[in-house]
Design a protein that fits this description.
Elements: H1 2-23, H2 31-51, H3 57-70, H4 77-112
Helix pairs in contact: 1-2, 1-4, 2-3, 3-4
């Protein structure tokens, strides 16, 4: 699960940075506000790569997905990109757990033989 989820989070790191560049063109937002929010979100996406296997890691990942979709209020294209990444996050968690379970079964079978 860690590999799939981390790959999604690294992709989000770049998407958040690109969204920050687009958000800078909004006259209602200051550059410092945009980069403070984007910087925190980018830092969290990297931090979550290491925390994804901990109990709260997946929940924090979902919180980041919600924030990514909500950023569409400032950069409208992020509604679409945020939903796509939320789908990727779901797939990463769902199929990552299945892969982990299959690895555990395989290891148990190999150990029993």
């Amino acid at each position: 699960m860690r590999t799939l989820c981390s790959s999604t989070l690294i992709g989000e790191f770049f998407i958040i940075g690109f969204a920050g560049l687009v958000a800078m063109k909004d006259p209602d937002l200051t550059t410092s506000t945009v980069w403070t929010v984007c910087g925190i979100a980018m830092f969290l996406s990297i931090l979550l790569c290491g925390a994804v296997t901990r109990p709260a890691g997946v929940a924090l990942g979902w919180a980041l997905q919600i924030a990514l979709v909500a950023s569409g209020f400032f950069v409208p294209m992020m509604f679409i990109i945020g939903v796509l990444f939320a789908g990727l996050w779901w797939a990463s968690v769902h199929y990552g757990r299945k892969v982990d379970e299959a690895k555990a079964r395989f290891a148990a079978q190999a150990g029993a033989s």
